[in-house]
Amino acid sequence: MHDIGKITIPSKILNKDASLTQKELEQIKRHPESGYQILRSVDEYASVAMIILSHHEWVDGSGYPEKLKGEDIPLASRIIAVADSYDAMTSGRIYTDCKTKEEAIQELRACAGSQFDPEVVSVFIEQVLLYGE
Fold first, then answer.
1. Fewer CB atoms inside 10 A, N or C side of the chain?
2. Domain extents for the chain?
3. Phi first, then psi: what are they for 94, rounded to 5°?
4. Does Hydrolase count among this protein's keywords (predicted)?
Protein backbone atom coordinates (compact mmCIF):
# COMPACT_ATOMS: atom_id res chain seq x y z
CA MET A 1 0.00 0.00 0.00
CA HIS A 2 2.90 2.39 0.66
CA ASP A 3 3.62 2.68 -3.08
CA ILE A 4 0.00 2.96 -4.25
CA GLY A 5 0.87 6.34 -5.77
CA LYS A 6 3.04 4.57 -8.33
CA ILE A 7 -0.13 3.67 -10.24
CA THR A 8 0.02 7.26 -11.53
CA ILE A 9 3.47 6.72 -13.08
CA PRO A 10 3.77 5.24 -16.59
CA SER A 11 5.07 1.66 -16.54
CA LYS A 12 7.78 2.57 -19.05
CA ILE A 13 9.30 4.76 -16.33
CA LEU A 14 8.80 2.26 -13.50
CA ASN A 15 10.36 -0.55 -15.55
CA LYS A 16 13.10 1.47 -17.24
CA ASP A 17 16.40 -0.41 -17.28
CA ALA A 18 18.53 2.71 -17.69
CA SER A 19 19.12 5.82 -15.63
CA LEU A 20 16.07 8.00 -15.17
CA THR A 21 16.02 11.50 -16.61
CA GLN A 22 15.52 14.39 -14.19
CA LYS A 23 11.90 14.71 -15.35
CA GLU A 24 11.29 10.97 -14.79
CA LEU A 25 12.89 11.14 -11.35
CA GLU A 26 10.59 14.04 -10.46
CA GLN A 27 7.60 11.90 -11.49
CA ILE A 28 8.82 9.05 -9.28
CA LYS A 29 9.28 11.43 -6.35
CA ARG A 30 5.64 12.50 -6.62
CA HIS A 31 4.29 9.01 -5.86
CA PRO A 32 3.99 9.61 -2.08
CA GLU A 33 1.82 12.67 -2.75
CA SER A 34 -0.27 10.74 -5.28
CA GLY A 35 -0.72 7.92 -2.77
CA TYR A 36 -1.73 10.42 -0.11
CA GLN A 37 -4.36 11.94 -2.41
CA ILE A 38 -5.76 8.51 -3.29
CA LEU A 39 -5.94 7.25 0.29
CA ARG A 40 -7.25 10.37 1.99
CA SER A 41 -10.29 10.26 -0.29
CA VAL A 42 -11.30 6.80 1.00
CA ASP A 43 -12.71 6.90 4.54
CA GLU A 44 -11.35 3.47 5.48
CA TYR A 45 -7.78 4.45 4.50
CA ALA A 46 -7.68 8.16 5.36
CA SER A 47 -5.93 7.43 8.66
CA VAL A 48 -2.89 5.98 6.87
CA ALA A 49 -2.65 8.66 4.19
CA MET A 50 -0.11 10.75 6.13
CA ILE A 51 2.02 7.65 6.74
CA ILE A 52 2.12 6.99 3.00
CA LEU A 53 2.94 10.63 2.28
CA SER A 54 5.96 10.48 4.60
CA HIS A 55 7.56 7.13 3.74
CA HIS A 56 10.41 8.72 1.73
CA GLU A 57 11.31 11.31 4.35
CA TRP A 58 14.81 11.00 5.84
CA VAL A 59 15.52 11.54 9.52
CA ASP A 60 18.14 14.17 8.61
CA GLY A 61 15.50 16.20 6.74
CA SER A 62 16.80 15.58 3.22
CA GLY A 63 13.99 13.26 2.08
CA TYR A 64 10.81 14.10 0.22
CA PRO A 65 8.17 15.40 -0.30
CA GLU A 66 8.08 17.72 2.75
CA LYS A 67 11.65 17.51 4.10
CA LEU A 68 10.40 16.33 7.49
CA LYS A 69 13.04 15.53 10.08
CA GLY A 70 13.41 13.03 12.92
CA GLU A 71 10.38 12.68 15.17
CA ASP A 72 8.29 14.83 12.79
CA ILE A 73 8.15 11.76 10.54
CA PRO A 74 5.44 9.34 11.72
CA LEU A 75 6.92 6.21 13.31
CA ALA A 76 5.03 3.99 10.87
CA SER A 77 6.63 5.89 7.97
CA ARG A 78 10.08 5.41 9.48
CA ILE A 79 9.40 1.68 9.78
CA ILE A 80 8.12 1.44 6.20
CA ALA A 81 11.22 3.30 4.96
CA VAL A 82 13.56 0.69 6.46
CA ALA A 83 11.50 -2.33 5.35
CA ASP A 84 10.99 -0.91 1.84
CA SER A 85 14.68 -0.15 1.42
CA TYR A 86 15.67 -3.61 2.63
CA ASP A 87 13.24 -5.13 0.14
CA ALA A 88 14.61 -2.96 -2.68
CA MET A 89 18.18 -3.95 -1.81
CA THR A 90 17.53 -7.69 -1.65
CA SER A 91 14.97 -8.12 -4.45
CA GLY A 92 15.69 -8.29 -8.13
CA ARG A 93 15.33 -4.83 -9.63
CA ILE A 94 15.93 -3.86 -13.22
CA TYR A 95 18.24 -0.99 -12.28
CA THR A 96 20.46 -2.64 -9.64
CA ASP A 97 21.95 -5.93 -8.52
CA CYS A 98 20.62 -7.74 -5.46
CA LYS A 99 22.52 -7.37 -2.23
CA THR A 100 22.97 -10.26 0.14
CA LYS A 101 21.28 -10.08 3.53
CA GLU A 102 24.63 -9.17 5.10
CA GLU A 103 25.31 -6.42 2.54
CA ALA A 104 21.83 -4.99 3.06
CA ILE A 105 22.30 -4.99 6.84
CA GLN A 106 25.59 -3.14 6.38
CA GLU A 107 23.86 -0.56 4.14
CA LEU A 108 21.01 -0.07 6.63
CA ARG A 109 23.51 0.50 9.44
CA ALA A 110 25.50 2.93 7.28
CA CYS A 111 22.36 4.97 6.58
CA ALA A 112 21.11 4.97 10.19
CA GLY A 113 21.02 8.53 11.45
CA SER A 114 20.82 10.12 8.01
CA GLN A 115 18.25 8.28 5.93
CA PHE A 116 16.83 6.01 8.62
CA ASP A 117 15.87 6.22 12.27
CA PRO A 118 18.73 4.41 14.08
CA GLU A 119 16.37 2.80 16.59
CA VAL A 120 14.11 1.46 13.83
CA VAL A 121 17.15 0.08 11.98
CA SER A 122 18.38 -1.65 15.14
CA VAL A 123 15.01 -3.22 15.91
CA PHE A 124 14.48 -4.26 12.28
CA ILE A 125 17.86 -5.98 12.11
CA GLU A 126 17.74 -7.65 15.52
CA GLN A 127 14.04 -8.56 15.73
CA VAL A 128 13.21 -9.21 12.08
CA LEU A 129 16.32 -10.11 10.10
CA LEU A 130 18.42 -11.83 12.75
CA TYR A 131 15.72 -13.13 15.07
CA GLY A 132 16.42 -16.72 16.01
CA GLU A 133 19.91 -16.85 14.53
1. C
2. 1-53, 71-133
3. -60, -40
4. yes
